[in-house]
Design a protein that fits this description.
The protein contains ten helices and 17 strands. By secondary structure, the protein is of the alpha/beta class. The chain has one domain: Alpha/Beta hydrolase fold, catalytic domain (Rossmann fold), CATH 3.40.50.1820.
């Protein structure tokens, strides 16, 4: 059998049968609201897909939201099909046997009715890392939704590892991870930013025509608060966050989780707050936007690093890999290379605490300002820019 450790992470006990797959669990959300999750299929009729000019740009979006009490819809899988496929591919590259693990369900109810008694909720766009699909930041998204946010994660089609659409067809990545560096700001970043702005337009349209539901779960369109929009993302998703803020003033605050500052925002700066959380070995220090003085930036910038972390600490690999390592399914050195030496429960708790406190302060949900809010947290693992 397996025992549950702190933060809901499953630890294998010495007596676990070798032929029984390890069930990797997801830490439970900490807020007071139950969580719903839904997939949203969108087509931008005004934009050609840059990887397939014969088609309009088509996206799959995953939305976590505060759900109605007592929702009885089925519990959703931890990741959508493309995310689970990517997870299997990622672990295979770490020599983890495919039959040695399985993902537990999420804590979210699929297509559950949204709340009708909580007023409108702020919106947080989410952009995954390069090649990544939605579902790889479920621990962050579910927790934010449980505290009264609507988290809207975007699959960037033909860049994400695999995206499955409602008719059953799957679009796979056309962008190798070793693509030349100029591909990021010249093609990937503009496409991602256009995706984010289009999704925000669609959310605004859904809110305006809420009586028709806009193909969203019951009551969700009425719950959208378009006056309070933030954004966060890991790796290239962090880059996308900063550039989207630059291009679209509807996004009032952002969080860059260990991503470079690319595109025109690197030269122009921002006039709104940006929290920047870097891994302990981040290569971005010294790059435009990450240095202590961003000369053209007039908004609040908070560049911090998290002791003991690595690049993949800022997504769900922070909870998955340590469980596999404890069970002897992944080499400890490979785990450390990916997610560092920080205690995984502590790392997840820290990320959740800082994301929630920062967005609460920057979107006006608390009476304290951002600097005061972040200072009060004072987690010892959180270090200033060197």
């Amino acid at each position: 059998m397996a025992s549950t450790g702190a933060g809901g992470v499953v630890e294998a006990s010495p007596g676990t049968p070798a032929d029984r797959p390890l069930v990797v669990s997801l830490p439970a959300p900490t807020g007071r609201y139950p969580v719903g999750v839904s997939d949203w299929h969108l087509t931008d009729i005004n934009r050609v897909d840059p990887w397939d000019p014969s088609r309009r740009r088509e996206l799959m979006v995953q939305i976590w939201y505060p759900a109605a009490d007592g929702a009885v819809t089925p519990t959703a899988p931890w990741m959508p099909p493309g995310g689970r496929e990517e997870q299997a591919d990622y672990l295979a590259k770490l020599d983890v046997p495919s039959d040695g693990w399985t993902l537990a369900p999420s804590h979210s109810r699929r297509d559950a009715p949204a709340r009708i008694d909580g007023g409108r909720f702020p919106i947080l766009l989410n952009s995954p890392g390069m090649d990544d699909t939605t579902g790889w930041s479920t621990a962050q998204a579910e927790d934010l939704a449980s505290h009264g946010y609507i988290v809207v994660a975007i699959n960037h089609t033909h860049e994400a590892f695999a995206v499955q659409f409602p008719d059953g067809h799957t679009e796979r990545s056309a962008v190798p991870l070793d693509s030349p560096q100029h591909v990021l700001p010249d093609l990937l970043l503009p496409t991602r930013v256009a995706d984010a702005r289009f999704v925000l337009d669609q959310l605004a349209g859904a809110a305006e025509q809420s009586a028709r539901g806009a193909d969203l779960p019951q009551q969700l369109a009425e719950d959208l608060d378009l006056s309070k929009v933030g954004m966060f993302g890991h790796s290239l998703g962090g880059s996308t966050t900063a550039q989207t803020m630059h291009d679209d003033h509807r996004v009032r605050a952002g969080v860059d989780l260990d991503g470079p500052i690319l595109g025109s925002v690197a030269g122009d700066g921002l006039d709104r707050p940006l929290l920047m959380l870097a891994s302990d070995t981040s290569p971005w220090f010294g790059h435009p936007g990450w240095e202590p003085s961003w000369a053209t930036n007039t908004g609040l910038k908070l560049p911090l690093r998290v002791a003991g972390t690595r690049h993949m600490s800022f997504c769900d690999q922070q909870t998955i890999l340590p469980q596999l390592a404890t069970a002897g399914l992944v080499d400890a050195a490979k785990e450390s290379d990916a997610v560092g030496s920080i205690d995984p429960h502590r790392s997840i708790d820290l990320q959740r605490a800082y994301l929630l406190a920062y967005f609460d302060a920057s979107l006006g949900r608390t009476d304290t300002n951002i600097i005061e809010t972040i200072t009060r947290l004072a987690w010892p693992e959180m270090l200033p820019h060197p």
